[in-house]
Amino acid sequence: MPALPTTHWLTVQPLTAESFAPFGQVIECKGHCSFPINGGTCQRYHDLAQPQLRAEGRIGMSLFHAQALPWNLPLQVLERHAYTSQAFVPMGQALPMLVVVAPADVPAYALQPPHVQAFLSDGQQGINLAPGTWHHPLRTLKEGTWLVVDRIAPPGSPVDCEEHDIGNWDLVCAR
Ligand SMILES: NC(=O)N[C@@H](O)C(=O)O
Ligand code: NI
To answer: Which atom of ligand 1 is nearest to the CA of 161?
Structure first.
């Protein structure tokens, strides 16, 4: 099957709290203060990210065991969840993920660079996407298990996942 033509190239940048601020929060120890607990045997990095709910239901925790997706797999869809934040936290060591996002206020027809940005986590970082933030579904570069924190909707609720086909985007590593 011939490869589909590339419609956009997206430059991947390192994930930092500052660069990711328009899309949500980065969950990491780096750059945050902590305080000793448990008799000094543990450091608590307190309240790094806040789950948000914008509809009935509750916040829950799930585990995603994800297969590795290669760099050269084109990006073809972005999605968003209007009624919940969505956090992804690696459960193992050195579990990097590709994060492709756009702000919640970008209309679907405008989903292209520079509104859409791509980040590579360092393998220790997690993210908490703000409600409505456009994102590519979890894209881990190594097989592994991820803690996911998001809304558990009441049974029978409509699915809170708006998808948009973006064509066929490829990735370029930042210099
Ligand atoms: N489908 C699901 O629960 N996960 C997606 O929302 C995702 O962003 O990976
Ligand atoms: Ni999602």
So the answer is: 6
Give the C-alpha separation, 13 to 144, whole Å.
22
Question: Atom 7 of ligand 1 has which residue's CA nearest to it?
Answer: 137
Structural domains of the chain, with CATH: 8-173 (2.60.120.480)
Residue 135 CA to residue 29 CA, distance in Å, equals 23
- Say if residues 81 and 13 touch (Cβ distance below 8 Å): no
Residues paired with residue 118 on neighbouring β-strands, in sequence order: 12, 100
Residues within 5 Å of ion ligand 2 by Cβ? 86
Which residue's entry shows tokens 């990095």?
Answer: 45
The tokens 């986590």 sit on which residue?
Answer: 121
Task: Give per-residue pLDDT as tens, 76-116.
Answer: 999 999 999 999 999 988 999 999 999 999 999 999 989 99
Select from 134, 161, 162, 164 the residue to mutate for testing ligand 1; criterion: most ligand atoms less than 8 Å from CB. 161
Taking the C-alpha atoms of residue 43 and residue 35, their distance in angstroms, rounded to an integer, is 5
- pLDDT at residue 5 greater than cutoff 90: no
16 Cβ neighbours under 8 A, 6+ residues apart: 26
User: Could you tell me if the CB of 137 is within 6 A of ligand 1?
Assistant: yes
